[in-house]
């Protein structure tokens, strides 16, 4: 005797299928029941652990249709057991399988602070290791001309410098103009701090707040957004949301790519 399905639910009342997404580390999702939004840090025994931008952890069951990814309902599934080799690096470059880090070049890229260096490493780290480019941070650019003179850039040891808030008429602009070596390139972005180079949409905020002149900018941002006033923890949460070049503003992307090209191209 032929068996028939007992499911008499009309087709228009059945839930539509949703994508199954591997719960890879770093994937940012939202649990709609609680509104908790965070990056995946662990997946085991039918549960997933998320970490929000303040470092708080929550464990959720991986139920069907249980999460939102960029506003769309998805079902999280356990990732494949084997390592997943990305076809592209975080910067968008074609990945080179099994590439070894090149011996460090004499040339360097200098950035203003530790946060700048960590962001550059997060997105361009694979590219920099293949090219043998070392990134160092300066803790400010007030003494930049003397730093460049001490480095002594030349045709085989080019120096690239990334400056925050490089806007005509600013102190940073005047300092950059004083660097005249043909083997040193100073470029910059318009943001007060490297934090602003991360797209607000990647952090779940509408925009970076405007902080009155005279206030510590990072502390003011934390206060304005209702974040704990711990700028170190806030930065780690911001950095955790950066997964690729798509999370950064083009004004930063172009300048870093320009510096990498400059220090890896032999001088005349």
TrEMBL record:
Superkingdom, taxonomy of origin: Bacteria
Domain DUF3097: 20-79, 108-264
Any coiled-coil regions, as ranges: none
Protein's name according to its UniProt entry: DUF3097 domain-containing protein
Organism of origin: Streptomyces pseudovenezuelae
Higher taxonomy: Bacteria, Bacillati, Actinomycetota, Actinomycetes, Kitasatosporales
């Amino acid at each position: 005797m032929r068996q028939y399905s007992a499911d008499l639910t009309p087709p228009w009342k059945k839930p539509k299928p949703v994508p199954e997404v591997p719960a890879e580390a770093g994937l940012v999702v939202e649990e709609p029941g609680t509104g908790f939004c965070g990056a995946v840090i662990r997946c085991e025994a039918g549960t997933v652990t998320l970490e929000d931008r303040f470092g708080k952890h929550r464990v959720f069951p991986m139920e069907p249709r249980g999460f939102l990814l960029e506003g769309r309902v998805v079902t999280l599934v356990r990732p494949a057991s084997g390592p997943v080799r990305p076809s592209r690096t975080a910067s968008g470059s074609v990945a080179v399988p099994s590439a070894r880090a090149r011996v460090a070049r004499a040339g360097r890229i200098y950035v203003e602070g530790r946060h700048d260096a960590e962001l550059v490493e997060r997105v361009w780290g694979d590219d920099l290791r293949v090219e043998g480019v070392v990134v160092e941070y300066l803790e400010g650019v007030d003494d930049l001309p003397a730093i460049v003179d001490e480095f002594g850039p030349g045709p085989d040891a080019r120096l690239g410098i990334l400056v925050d808030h490089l806007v005509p008429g600013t102190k940073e602009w005047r300092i950059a103009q004083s660097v005249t070596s043909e083997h040193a390139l100073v470029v910059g972005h318009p943001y007060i701090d490297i934090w602003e180079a991360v797209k607000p949409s990647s952090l779940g905020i509408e925009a970076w707040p405007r902080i009155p002149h005279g206030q510590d900018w990072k502390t003011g941002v934390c206060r304005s957004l209702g974040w704990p006033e711990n700028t170190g923890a806030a930065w780690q949460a911001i950095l955790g949301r950066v997964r690729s070049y798509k999370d950064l503003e083009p004004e930063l992307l172009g300048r870093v790519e320009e510096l990498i090209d400059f220090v890896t191209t032999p001088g005349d």
